User: What shape does this take?
Amino acid sequence: MENNNFITIVLAAGKGTRMKSKLPKVLHKVGGKPMVNRVLEAASLAGSEKNIVILGFGKEMVEKVLPENTVTVLQKEQLGTGHAVLQAKDLVNPEDTVLILCGDTPLLSPEMLKHFTTAHHKNKVAASVLTTVMPNPTGYGRIVRNMNGLLQKIVEHKDANIAELTIKEVNTGIYLFNAKSLFEALEKVGNDNAQGEYYLPDVLPILHDAGQKIEAVVVDDYEETLGINSRLQLSRAEAILRERKNYELMRDGVTIIDPANTYIDSDVTIEPDCIIYPSTWIEGKTIIHSGCEIGPGCRFSDVEIGANSTISFTYAHECRIGKNVTVGPYVHLRPNTVISDNVHIGNFMEVKNSNIGEGTKLPHLSYIGDSDIGKKVNMGCGTITVNYDGKVKHRTTIADNAFVGCNSNLVAPVTVGEGAYIGAGSTITKDVPAHELAIARERQKNIPNWVDKRR
Ligand code: UD1
Ligand code: CA
Assistant: This one.
């Protein structure tokens, strides 16, 4: 094996008692993605050749989100981090270098992990532990150094004495080991401590006593190594990720009016010269091309929006919107909707599973479902596609340049031909041929002197 190569073990078997949740801790999302996926991504981007995940609590649930090439192993009982690593013994070659990560540290960057692996290989040691100085080290294992400043041992918060509790240098839970040394030492770890658990950090003094070299590598940016044990810490991690994403976007030419009130997932793409107004959530793999004005009050999940579109107070999910489109306010665009260029969608509109042709106008108060609408169609205010007969859904087709009068019902399946007109208030149950006018409503009758006679 070449010198800088390594494989990774991610610990993800714990329940996360302090989260008070039915969901395994590592599945709680940060920046729109489960924590464990973020950890695995960082490992892979840093060059990990194989990722092994230790599963336990909620095993089936966690398995579902893992990338395909992940190797998993079960820790039946959660007897501690040392015991967890031991479960992977048969999946590791003695000559491997093993990076150990916890599934609850979602802010890691690949750069930091690369820096750590480089230091480990350069130091030629059996084990390295990544440490950092935390302003508030509560809950973390403390790094105890001897008089020469060398790592002596790690003491868990719950086992620490008063003097040890004042130490601000903590164990990040990130280690690199020579596999043979790691598994030999793990066999010797006991559980005589406050939690009755087999602690992984206890291998360090065991290796040291056996005459092997160990090293603590200090990292400056403690934020990257934050471990999430509670909902409070989860919200802090979320805020950090959000800030990072907003910063990147602004650096690359996006205006964000109020970053503190803008929530953009890490995998979102926004091109330069977009303006994002407050109270906006942009989620999943959403892509927004240049020059768009988004918000206030939008939520997009997995949406693609063409250049120079303007969208306010809109919830759109799993749909595509073209260029120079205006949408909103108060619009719901539902899955499988494709909106072509230069379309105008006005206020209080719902569009579902439909194709809307170029230059078409849907100005106000309509429901458009399961429809194929051509180019330059005008849908009058209050138009409804009656797509459901109580058992199945049917499609409505409207050809180019048609004009649908206000408050019409189009009872599907039905087709309105090219350039056809529909009189306001019609309930259309039969196809309308091209260039014809369809009126389907009671004729108006005026009764003279009715009011006087009634008196
Ligand atoms: C651990 C470290 C602590 C360090 C901190 C960094 C130990 C004993 N303590 O503490 O020194 O400062 O991480 O964040 O290692 N897990 C299993 N199986 C188990 C127990 C835990 O897979 O039997 C997993 C958990 O799912 C979690 C990770 O290991 O992803 C860490 O466990 P956790 O209980 O959060 O450890 P900490 O108390 O945070
Ligand atoms: Ca933790």
